[in-house]
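Could someone model zinc ion with this protein?
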Amino acid sequence: MIFDAGTGLRLLGAPMRGRPGPTAAQIFLTHFHWDHIQGFPFFAPLYDPRFHLSIVGPEQEELDIRTLFAGQIGPVYFPIPFSAVAAGTSFTHLNEGTWEGDDFEVAAFRMRHPSYTVGYRVRVGGQTVCYLPDNELEGGTFPVGGAEWRADLATFLGGADLLVHDAMYTEEEYAARHGWGHSTFEQAFKLAAECGVRHLLFFHHAPERTDTELRRIVEGFQERSEREGGPSIEAAREGVDIEIRR
Ligand SMILES: [Zn+2]
Ligand SMILES: [Zn+2]
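Reply:
Sure, complex below.
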């Protein structure tokens, strides 16, 4: 299972091509903003006929997800045509509800973000992992929101072992960015604590955020969460393996 297709997808795919290992993957997309799809044309298994890629994501108003993908790999945006894709592909819409695999389940929940955006909850091997990369928890105006949405979200996330959540801004930065579709560290922390999440990963870092700033912010929340009996907290970063134990 792969969630979103940002630039990290290139590094994930390079060692998969032409080597033994799994040759089927499900790619679950939250939405189609550039930062979530731009790794897709560079995903080596796409050009390897041994692979089958099942691509799942929310249909946009008048655009099915196959069209969105095919449009991205074409002469205007990319030198290789979509016809060069050698892997088997299938496309399935998931705007809400649950995708059932053989031994796992993936559920989609609509986020507060421009375009039809979802967050995902994965249940596999007795563990629950939630991935909500783009979500404005409190401000702005979106087709979903309010007390009922928030309560449903809390139920959706309830007791998750790991939550990866949008934490793009500090409170000061957010003051000028209501409605941009992203949350603050504070909002993500409160949500995780409220939902009894065990581990929280701050995600979707602001591009201009430095490692030093991020480290200082995370340390502040780690101390606070320890005092308040909240989740363990880290900042998401590339190339990390996370082992979840009960
Ligand atoms: Zn987005
Ligand atoms: Zn994004």
